[in-house]
Design a protein that fits this description.
The complex is a heterotrimer of chains A (296), B (328) and C (324). Chain A has 296 residues and is mainly alpha-helical. Helices cover 73% and strands 0% of the residues of chain A. Classes of the chains: A mainly alpha (296), B alpha/beta (328), C alpha/beta (324). Chain C: One of its GO terms (molecular function) is ATP binding.
Chain lengths: 296, 328, 324
């Protein structure tokens, strides 16, 4: 214990005059995996945002003569059944897929966590009501729910995000509530109440940071799933409309060629995989940075 | 000490833990002997290494991170540290039994208490199921649990009753050595008194030797024959109970007594030991107590002899012999 | 043991306080008709075994739990049901120190933020510098080294954590503090340090303590007056000196005899308690200790009253005269 304090003394000086946000942000990227994840994600985002520079051609330009071409120097990732350049489609498609995946998962996490915290903290009837509602909610198959909401709201970027996130809310709520059950008997919550903290402040300032870790991991893991889910919506004409490229849609289009032209499946798959990996690594870094026990 | 009667002898036991690159010196050269039917109290604060000693005797230290680095544990002429794991299995629960601190977690919530005791019994004996059940009922009644409660589950028992079950389990095979690790710390005083009394009676009846681990000097005073005061993984003082309570010699022992609010005299202010226990990854050289010791001198930073200051009274302190009989 | 005289109007007055919990098996009478007063600068010890309702009593008084019935007066004002701003004012004057130094500090807040929290909530401090100064003063007051400002709870040992808990409770200079077993999780040597600290702080700042504990030697050391609780009710109430020299209730006697004494020359003579502890759920009207009491008689099945048998000495036992 004393050794730890000594270490503390030295880090104290370093930590001075740094806002908490910046110091947390810095700590996120202290470890090698988180750094790798961060660089990878920035790289992916840069490629997608600057797609016109790196793509080399229009993602929707058809070249039937060159349909289903294998990867070559001219077409880095080959072409699809309509002769469209895969590389360009992945870069342009990333714009939608990344946004849908990240924002959709974030929405789900925020919604689920809030419900979970409220249910877990208040307990009793409130908890019963919220959790039973979540049970009913999650009894509806995710895809079906997604389609129903999408149909009701109509196509469009923001509506798609809502449709994608709503199915994942009950899961988040259940996970957060489970964590809170173990946490809510701790005396520091009573101490907070005794010093006049409001219920909102107790829930979100004192309780939430102590139960957020599994949610961070779950959310980052869910991003890949959200991207593929978005493809389902596109497939039935509810998500992003063709011919606009999008990773999930590319995957499902490539399905029929899996034996003869696996590259149609491979490259969008790699794109989704790398993105999930990058965000996952960063998520772990964030979780550790928020936990003072893991601080060096 | 009479060599012939020595039942358990621990010699130069040394245990280290490795954690995140640091080496924690949990037990540093502990030696003591125990006769048949005798009870020894190990007294010390959290982290002093009391529980580690007991676990090392029973060889149930988590390995890794814990390593028994040196020393011998000789039980009835047999060195336990050299036995194979199979041979050790026969000794655990049969010759040596341990009572853990928390009765709430030591029992399986899905088994009736009777069956749990039966399981231990059957592991070490060739009883038929009927004989076994009969014996379990006997044991239960011995610790004061009516036979009707054989079929009840742990959650139906109160804390004190659960600890009785744990004790019954430990005593099921008539062990020759009982290791009791803070057996009453989780209990209320009135229940604690009942349990201690019961342990005492059973010990007398079965002539069991016992090592009682506790931080409570009162419990030691009421139950043990000899006392070893542990500080930073070492025995700093060892004596017969009355000798130790009447003539404590080591400054740490004196500090412990000064910290106790007394039931008998009125003290306006307590005299706590200043400072904190040392970091076991970075023990000070010489006497590990000198940074907190009110009488420390330069000599304390060197090797400290463990000497006999009165017959049977050992103390690890330079000053001890010189100020014999006096108190701070 | 301190010998002090207290007079004038009481700081805290508890009148027939009741706290019941609804549990599946019925109603748990955790605190059942408890009355007492505490004066400024006084320490009232509340002793009892686990589950006797002593912690619930403390929490009900300082409004962490809502009372089922009865009244709590703070300086003559009824605070039992105040809400909003008035409750906020009350909470600045009554505080609590918890038993478990591990779970009572938010693991995600460092020491200075933990202590700063109540200061911020009070809105009394305008500038950041003032806040920092006050925090530093509080840390100094309870003896935490300045260099530990930005340490997190897991980096500290139990004794230091408990000091942080004390600093947090003291932050707004309350008049009354409930100490809920503040030293029972600590080692003896550290326990003595914290007890000394609590007594010094009281001498300095003059607040009143309600000291809840199961440890009679600690309570003897720190308290002026003592209440002995058994299953939600007070069974004996008197000055500390009186309790240890002239205790009257059979439960008090049994409790005192059960403490393992460090006196090795006189083996303890324990009063045997037989029988099972009665349940606080839907209790029968009579004396709750009767099932274990060596002196139980038919009269014990009637409801018991806390009666003043001599000056400032209250006992709730119908056979008190016959037993003693």
């Amino acid at each position: 214990m004393m050794a730890k304090e000594k270490i503390n003394e030295t880090t104290n000086k370093k930590r001075k005059k740094q806002s908490r946000f910046i110091s947390t942000f810095k700590r996120v990227f202290e470890t090698v995996p988180a750094k790798t994840g961060g660089i990878l994600l920035i790289f992916i985002i840069a490629l997608c945002v600057l797609a016109p520079v790196f793509a080399g051609c229009d993602p929707n330009e058809m070249d039937m003569a060159n349909a289903l071409a294998k990867p070559s120097l001219q077409h880095l990732c080959g072409t699809d059944n309509l002769g469209r350049d895969q590389w360009a489609r992945i870069l342009y498609g990333g714009r939608y897929s990344l946004a849908l995946g990240i924002i959709g998962s974030l929405f789900a996490a925020v919604g689920g966590t809030s419900l979970g915290v409220i249910a877990g903290y208040f307990g009793g009837q409130t908890e019963n009501l919220i959790m039973r509602f979540c049970d009913v909610w999650s009894a509806i198959p995710g895809t079906l729910l997604c389609i129903v909401i999408s149909t009701a709201l109509g196509p469009g970027f923001f509506n798609t995000i809502i449709a994608l996130s709503i199915g994942a809310v009950p899961n988040g709520a259940r996970m957060t509530r489970g964590q809170i059950l173990a946490e809510r008997t701790k005396e520091y919550l009573e101490a907070a109440e005794a010093m006049n903290c409001s219920k909102v402040s107790i829930m979100f300032k004192h309780l939430l940071p102590n139960v957020i870790s599994p949610t961070i991991v779950g959310t980052t893991m869910g991003i890949g799933a959200t991207i593929t889910q978005a493809a389902t919506l596109s497939y039935i004409g509810l998500g992003v409309q063709p011919p606009t490229p999008e990773w999930g849609a590319m995957l499902s289009a490539g399905k029929s060629y899996v034996t003869s032209f696996p590259h149609l499946l491979l490259y969008p798959g790699i794109a989704i995989g790398l993105t999930t990996l990058a965000i996952n690594l960063m998520g772990d870094g964030l979780r550790d940075a928020l936990d003072p026990k893991l601080r060096k | 000490m009479d060599e012939k009667n020595t039942f358990l002898s621990v010699k130069d036991m040394e245990v280290i833990y490795t954690s995140a690159g640091d080496i924690v010196h949990a037990v540093n050269g502990v030696s003591f002997e125990l006769k048949k039917g005798e009870s020894l109290g190990l007294v010390g604060e959290t982290g002093a290494g009391k529980t580690t000693i007991a676990r090392a005797i029973l060889r149930i230290l988590p390995d890794p991170p814990a390593i028994l680095k040196g020393g011998q544990v000789i039980l009835d002429g047999q060195d336990l540290t050299r036995l194979s794991e199979e041979e050790m299995l026969k000794i655990r629960g049969d010759k040596i039994a341990m009572i853990f601190q928390d009765p709430m977690t030591a029992l399986n919530p899905l088994m009736t208490v009777g069956d749990q005791i039966l399981e231990v019994l059957m592991l070490h004996n060739n009883f038929s199921k009927e004989e076994g059940c009969k014996r379990v009922v006997e044991i239960l009644e011995m610790v004061g649990i009516p036979r009707e409660r054989y079929v009840e589950f742990p959650h139906q028992f109160s804390g004190g009753m659960k600890q009785r079950v744990v004790i019954a389990m430990a005593l099921a095979c008539n062990p020759e050595l009982l290791l009791a690790d803070e057996p009453t710390t989780a209990l209320d005083v009135t229940i604690q008194a009942q349990v201690l009394e019961m342990i005492q009676e059973l010990k007398k009846k079965l002539n069991t030797s016992m090592i009682l681990i506790t931080h409570d000097l009162g419990v030691v005073a009421q139950t043990c024959d000899n006392v070893a005061v542990i500080y930073a993984g070492q025995i700093v003082e060892y004596a017969e109970k009355i000798e130790l309570f009447d003539h404590p010699a080591h400054p740490y022992t004196l500090g412990l007594f000064g910290s106790l609010p007394s039931m008998n005299d009125d003290v306006e202010r307590l005299h706590p030991i200043s400072g904190m226990p040392p970091d076991p990854t970075d023990l000070p050289p010489g006497c590990s107590f000198w940074p907190r010791c009110p009488k420390a001198t330069a000599a304390c930073k060197e090797e400290i002899p463990y000497k006999e200051i009165a017959p049977g009274h050992f103390c690890r302190c330079h000053m001890a012999g010189k100020q014999e009989g006096s108190s701070l | 043991m301190k010998k002090k005289e207290f007079s004038g109007s009481p700081l805290i007055e508890v009148k027939h306080l009741k706290k019941y919990f609804n549990v599946p098996a019925g109603t748990n009478h955790a605190v059942d008709d408890v009355s007492f007063t505490i004066h400024k600068g006084e320490t009232l010890g509340v002793v009892g075994e686990s589950g006797c309702g002593k912690s619930t009593l403390g929490r009900t008084i300082i409004r962490l739990l809502e009372a089922t019935d009865g009244q709590v007066l703070l300086e003559g004002k009824d605070i039992t049901h105040v809400q909003g701003e008035a409750l906020k004012k009350v909470r600045e004057q009554v505080q609590i120190i918890f038993q478990d130094p591990y779970s009572s500090l938010n693991p995600r807040l460092d020491i200075s933020r933990t202590i700063k929290e109540p200061l911020k909530r009070s809105g009394r401090f305008r500038s950041r510098a003032e806040l920092m100064k006050e925090t530093a003063e509080l840390m100094d007051l309870v003896g935490i080294d300045e260099r530990l400002r930005e340490a997190y709870p897991h980096e500290l040992d139990g004794g230091r954590r408990q000091r942080v808990g004390i600093a947090r409770a003291l932050a707004l200079r309350p008049k009354f503090i409930v100490c809920d077993e503040p030293v029972s999780a600590l080692d003896v040597s550290i326990q003595a340090q914290v007890l000394n600290l609590l007594m010094d702080l009281q001498d300095e700042m003059g607040m009143a303590y309600m000291f809840v504990t199961h440890d009679l030697s600690v309570v003897r050391h720190i308290s002026d007056n003592i209440c002995v609780m058994y299953l939600g009710q007070l069974v004996e109430k008197c000055s500390t000196q009186e309790l240890f020299s002239n205790n009257l209730h059979p439960y008090t006697k049994a409790l005192l005899s059960a403490i393992p004494s460090t006196d090795v020359h006189n083996p303890m003579k324990r009063i045997q308690l037989k029988g099972e502890i009665a349940s606080p759920i839907n209790p029968k009207p009579g004396c709750r200790f009767a099932s274990r009491c060596p002196h139980a008689a038919d009269a014990c099945r009637e409801p018991q009253q806390l009666v003043e048998v001599s000056e400032n000495h209250f006992v709730s036992c119908c056979r008190v005269a016959e037993i003693n």
